């Protein structure tokens, strides 16, 4: 296994971050995810905005270590995940055809196509589409983890509320903030953390 060597700018960014907010009381995976999201966004409010449980993150981390597929709701999220290939049917013409035929959104159709590809046990990552979260819940995809942080004023908070209420292993946030950068950062944090980082 190759040890990741962070760029000096990233190292300095973490030093500044840690001088401004103390996340040391958090459990290791939650802290790693929160720090990476803050590093990616320069938004310290994520220290109190992200909602999860350590056991959910550990389940997702273990699944990623075992090679579980990563499914994204959009190509921008996929582009931001730097250490793993992803599955994304957002731009698939079949998703557009299914959406028209079934009277659902393209994002919901993409979830259906992705689930047909990967089956249960995947890590699902949503940075844009509330409809994708609702479809993940409705499809009962049996995920290892759902990272659901869609951004926006319409439907985003409701989707994140539904995700938390639905009992799936999840990472979400309470506010209207979020987006592809946050979603990708959360996955990258789990991909980058090795066994030593859990101690």
Can you walk me through this structure?
By secondary structure, the protein is α/β, with parallel strands linked by helices. Helices cover 53% and strands 9% of the residues. The protein has a five-stranded mixed sheet, with helices on both faces.
Ends distance: 19 Å
Give unreliable regions as ranges.
none
Structural class: alpha/beta
Global shape: globular
Q: Could you tell me the mean pLDDT?
A: 93
Number of discrete helical segments: 10
Helical coverage, percent range: 40-55%
Strands of the biggest beta sheet: in what spatial order? 1-5-4-3-2
Report Rg.
Answer: 16 Å
What is the N-to-C order of secondary-structure elements (H for helix, E for strand)? HHHEHEHHHEHEHEH
The largest sheet, given as strand count, sense and whether it forms a barrel, is: 5 strands, mixed
* Strand proportion: 5-15%
How many strand segments? 5
């Amino acid at each position: 296994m190759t040890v990741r060597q962070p760029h000096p700018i990233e190292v300095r960014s973490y030093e500044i971050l840690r001088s401004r907010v103390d996340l040391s009381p958090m459990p290791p995976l939650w802290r790693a995810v929160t720090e990476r999201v803050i590093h990616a966004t320069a938004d310290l409010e994520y220290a109190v905005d992200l909602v999860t449980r350590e056991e959910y993150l550990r389940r997702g981390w273990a699944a990623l270590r075992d090679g579980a597929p990563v499914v994204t709701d959009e190509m921008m999220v996929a582009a931001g995940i730097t250490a793993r290939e992803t599955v994304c049917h957002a731009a698939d013409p079949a998703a557009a055809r299914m959406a028209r035929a079934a009277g659902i959104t393209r994002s919901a159709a993409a979830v259906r196509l992705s689930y047909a590809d990967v089956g249960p046990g995947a890590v699902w990552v949503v940075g844009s589409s509330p409809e994708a979260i609702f479809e993940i819940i409705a499809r009962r995809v049996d995920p290892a983890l759902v990272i659901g942080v869609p951004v926006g004023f319409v439907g985003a908070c409701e989707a994140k509320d539904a995700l938390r209420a639905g009992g799936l292993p999840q990472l979400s946030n309470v506010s209207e903030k979020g987006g592809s950068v946050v979603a990708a950062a959360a996955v990258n944090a789990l991909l980058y953390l090795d066994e030593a980082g859990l101690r």
